[in-house]
């Protein structure tokens, strides 16, 4: 399903006759902070049919949750997600916890008649994701929506890329090459945080970064991967234990070491259903690359290229230009007729990472108001999970090409 | 979830014993929208000593002002700025109107015991700016601060550049070359909005874009311009009259034409007090350049280069590197030890244009809390005005080199 | 005149007491033209111990060969390569023919006591390449050298990269990602030239582009690939037959179609012997990419990045720089202490593609004069061939990981 | 072998019935080396109507000249330029000496019935240049041509830019901004070579770098500068005396110091005859910029941008593209329908600095064969000299705007 065209924003004021959309959020770390910014800001910028209300935030540590709620502007606090899900004054549950709790919370929230926004990856296993997708479909019949948070679809440049691919500007697709490169594990003394332990994190670079690029590649291509061939690697297998609290990505080493049980890097090639080829790389060891999600699509009529480290730019090669004048052009995606932009700033005044969460809220609120299936749905999240499972399977059987099951 | 929570800044909660900072804003167009975002967001991200409160917004058209207030989150509305200035529940007046009203409002607000934040350029004339600077200095004696809104000092990359220059990383400065290139006037049928009429706008590209680059160049260099030699030009002298409302930058043409009375472009060279050379260009006719504020500084020990169209990057050449390994390096200014960043997102997750206004609020609130003179002060705004006046004087006398007066 | 004379290299004149190096070249198409430029120019720029002499050129069409010889500066002409090999006035045979004739000519030339320079890929099969490597080793015992023409090792930027890796600037290597992207087959009406027929060309993008990047990746990494997992694809299987003469890459379509029997694209991942991961892509369908050989190496202490479309630049990230100042730096590889440069032009005056052939001649002549094994040797060419064979094998058995045999 | 042979150009062999063009060159330093490469190579690559012959080289030091002649491939040697000019076996005199001897040699060579190629700047004074232009015009009546060596017109990218401007792709021109940035003087201990002494060099950055950019700007714009306003500066006025021989750009310091009597940097703004604005900067103090000749032209319908440090690229913004898809496109100027390219390599296989000299020879030989006035002529060189004189005059009278005289 294509995005509603984020056009001609709020020349008229929203209809305040409609009830607000009361949100309860579980988790308040990195993603909770980003989502809070999205919920707080979307209605200030876009003319939304229903105004989001930051009703309640949930965290196990009551004092910390209260502080976070004050900080980010949430009215109430809960310390048990079940209590949050049970609140009458919550219309939508926003799940920003680690992946191992997604399924349980989402299923309960849908059962309780809430809309759900769930961070990616949808779940840590295909089975969980499948249950969630079934529940989401069932809830849709009752008018409740469930969206998975693949926010990188909502960078204006990637949204423009999707629009151009859908309009046929690339013609028959031949190649999609995509990498998500970070470098925060290059230091072998970085400690063994929960992100490096399979029992907690599910997987390493694959689930964290790979999920994003599998979704984005399939979304931009407008088609699915048929199969994959994969290698994964853990470069540093013993790391110092973490001292003190820390989070997934920051910590100080303590005495003793432990074993890393997730992948540091995953490389895979694949075939799209149309026959186009794809190559993927997800790593936390690309020294000097901080958040380099790069994707390039080559088609018979043109190519598109994007790098998240320069997120206001989309590069387009139009192969139908006269040969002597053809070249990759740097489209500064800040024009009023670019996706999402007319609600923001004048041309050349760039947006940042967090705006993807504002756009996510915008699109979700519209979908709820329209009763349309959200995009990406839990079914989309499930399908990404199936690709990741095929990657792990292939990596486990000597890289043999492994079909993605339906 | 890719990476950890934004750590740094507010490890401890702000001291809520301190009173909030109640803001009254005049004007609600482009700048008013950006400032609203700044006031709303700063306290959510940074640990501020006093929490900003969006107390009242002022606009002449009551209904429109009310709608804007609702939209942007302002509590009350006024239709006369004098009434806003008189309100007891306003501690700070934020002036987002066109330049011709800055002086009158700022002087009244300071006289009424308010802190003031005033958009750039500080005023349309040196005389007005001088009166404002005097009033600001007098108010400072009474504990009231006055800041001018040169927000481009607060891009993390430019703030880092300033830090590096101050630390001596460039050594003796030789060259500063700076341009602010836009292209919204290249169409000769773009209508004669108020921005193209001297009686309203004061000047054209010079006051609008030139003020920014003169301030930024002097700020980064850490010294002032001693004199300038200038050319200005109005390429298209007759334009269609605008139809309907429109704003300074958007409008539809109507019947009839009128005369453009401001500059379309201004080019000037100059000398800094140290003897370093500077070149400036401000234009609205640089086809394809949307918001290209570019500045490069060359010193004996190194160089820095920045382009606002890629605002998360600062380029640095360290001339003390071994020759075979030296080169301009692209610093992605998203690391926790870069200015402002530790309150935001993990490395590589870039910021946008509007964040400069959040940072401006942060710095202003701290300055008020500390009782420090704000940076940039009205005196700084006055000095920029004197440079612009010297530019106009030089342009009017055959480009003769014209000293900047104190 | 901007800058000074090219100093460095030949402060002393070459020793003309030494005999010239008389060259006989087989083939005079694209590679023959490039090699001619190399042989003609190297002695004019570098102070060579022996002066190359363009003794004889060989081509089957006598008139065409004569014209090419006149054009490129070769003294004599032969129409049978056996006659060329037999000439007493030829010291070195330079083989610029298609791959299917490399083995026969090289073996004969070595047997005749000539030095040999052979274009890449060394041969169309591992068996041929192995025979050539054996013969080269045997000839080395008799003082005759055999080099394979992987010219991309001799871009100053790649040579600098090798020097930096060898000096430990990257530390432990983690990733090598490399792609060679061209786009001349995107038009489905491009005709079925000999390059698209397996019986003539051996393979498609794999042997043509893949050979270059396998060699370059291993050379820069300083280690070999242990195994690979591969996908290959032929996107367009029926193409118009070519009309008229044409060459491999240019032709006009004629009536009728034929079947493409080589790969259009090859993707493979792999492991280096050290455990570093590698990803490779070779394609003729990357719309808008003309000659984009891109390689990036990530190590624990730093990263290097190169793109042949900007061949005068090498990007280096030094992870030991202070965090706030670290970034990929663009080294303009035109300084006198960069490889090959001091014989050329002042800083910033870039070189081009053909200079790799001049450098190849320079290095080969020095190796001959020194009696050192040339680099890359036929053994290196054989090893690349073995990697390509493993790629084909893996692609043929469902992408299963396939070791590279010794 | 990646791609096909360089086709295009010489489909037919040159007409060898025509006599060769016998060249005598005066000077053999940096420019002499570059010109030698041009004369040697042009006939090997392009199908020239007359084949250049490197007949004689002239230098005051006989042994050094002999060594240079051997090195670069010149047949004979002279130690007095008058003897060279008098030789019967010389058809064209190529002047690669410093500017103070250009006039004398050129006048003598034209008087002796030779064609002349003279390095830029044409002369050190307007008077000399005027005399040369008159002599050239007179010689043209006798079938003798005189060209000035503004080689940067002959980068394929700049030649393409000229073609696009001439075809109206930019529409009405508004801005030309151009800089030539080098950094070899940033070290204050670099010694006082002849290039820093006015009596020998005429001027500093202005004549050396400024001459190039004035010519290129006017050439690309297709119109002349009407007037300029200028600043010049000498940052370091005392430098160590040079020890030993050295050249203009390289030397080792000795005891004692001397006074720099030329400009280190020159900044000027100007107006074209059409009313377009121009800004120029020439400096030897732009730390980290090695040979950054950058030019951008903005017109009503489009813009072009070029940087000599990436000389295979031309950036083009087509303002008539649909807004949502517009952007500066990077044209890789290596396609067969780009200027000069079809005689060289396949797409993406870039050229370098020295190729401008090959193209210069190609164009000059064609002009001689056709009897056409060469481009740029001595009259063009004179006009550039007049601009430089206006720059110096303006700099000397407080930057007052100074018309360029005819």
Automatic annotation (TrEMBL), chains A, B, C, D:
SUPFAM superfamilies (UniProt xref): Glyceraldehyde-3-phosphate dehydrogenase-like, C-terminal domain, NAD(P)-binding Rossmann-fold domains
GO MF annotations in UniProt: nucleotide binding; oxidoreductase activity
Stretches assigned to the GFO/IDH/MocA-like oxidoreductase domain: 160-304
Domain Gfo/Idh/MocA-like oxidoreductase N-terminal: 21-139
Region feature Disordered, mapped onto this chain: 1-20
Domain of life according to the entry: Bacteria
Keyword Oxidoreductase assigned: yes
InterPro entries: Gfo/Idh/MocA-like_OxRdtase_N, Gfo/Idh/MocA_oxidrdct_glycsds, GFO_IDH_MocA-like_dom, NAD(P)-bd_dom_sf
Keywords: Oxidoreductase
Protein name: Gfo/Idh/MocA family oxidoreductase
């Amino acid at each position: 399903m294509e995005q509603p065209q984020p056009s001609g924003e709020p020349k008229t004021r929203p209809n305040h006759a409609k009830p607000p959309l009361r949100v309860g959020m579980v988790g308040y770390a990195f993603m909770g902070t980003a989502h809070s910014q999205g919920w707080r800001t979307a209605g200030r910028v876009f003319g939304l049919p229903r105004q989001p209300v930051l009703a309640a935030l949930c965290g196990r540590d009551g004092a910390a949750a209260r502080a976070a709620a004050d900080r980010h502007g949430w009215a109430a606090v809960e310390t048990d997600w079940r209590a949050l899900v049970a609140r009458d004054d919550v219309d939508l549950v926003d799940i920003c916890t680690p992946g191992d709790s997604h399924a349980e919370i989402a299923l309960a929230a849908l059962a309780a008649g809430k809309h759900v926004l769930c961070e990616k990856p949808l779940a840590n296993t295909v089975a969980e994701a499948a249950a969630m997708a079934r529940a989401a479909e069932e809830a849709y019949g009752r008018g409740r929506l469930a969206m998975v948070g693949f926010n990188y679809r909502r960078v204006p440049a990637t949204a423009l890329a999707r629009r151009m691919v859908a309009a046929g500007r690339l013609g028959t697709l031949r190649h999609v090459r995509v990498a998500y490169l970070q470098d925060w594990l290059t230091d072998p003394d970085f400690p063994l945080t929960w992100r490096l332990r399979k029992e907690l994190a599910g997987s390493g670079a694959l689930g964290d970064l790979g999920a994003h690029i599998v979704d984005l590649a399939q979304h931009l291509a407008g088609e699915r991967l048929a199969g994959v061939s994969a290698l994964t690697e853990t470069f540093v297998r013993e790391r110092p234990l973490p001292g003190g609290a820390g989070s997934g990505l920051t910590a100080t080493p303590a005495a003793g070491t432990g074993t890393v049980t997730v992948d540091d890097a995953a490389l895979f090639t694949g075939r799209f259903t149309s026959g186009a080829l794809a190559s993927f790389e997800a790593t936390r060891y690309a020294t000097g690359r901080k958040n380099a999600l790069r994707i390039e699509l080559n088609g018979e009529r043109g190519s598109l290229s994007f790098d998240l480290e320069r997120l206001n730019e989309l590069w387009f090669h139009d192969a139908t230009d006269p040969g002597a004048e053809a070249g990759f052009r740097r489209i500064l995606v800040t024009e009023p007729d670019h996706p999402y932009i007319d609600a923001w700033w004048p041309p050349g005044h760039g947006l940042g990472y967090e705006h993807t969460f504002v756009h996510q809220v915008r699109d979700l609120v519209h979908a709820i108001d329209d009763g349309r299936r959200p995009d990406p749905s839990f079914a989309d999240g499930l399908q990404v999970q199936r690709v990741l499972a095929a990657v792990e399977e292939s990596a486990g059987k000597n890289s043999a090409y492994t079909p993605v099951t339906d």
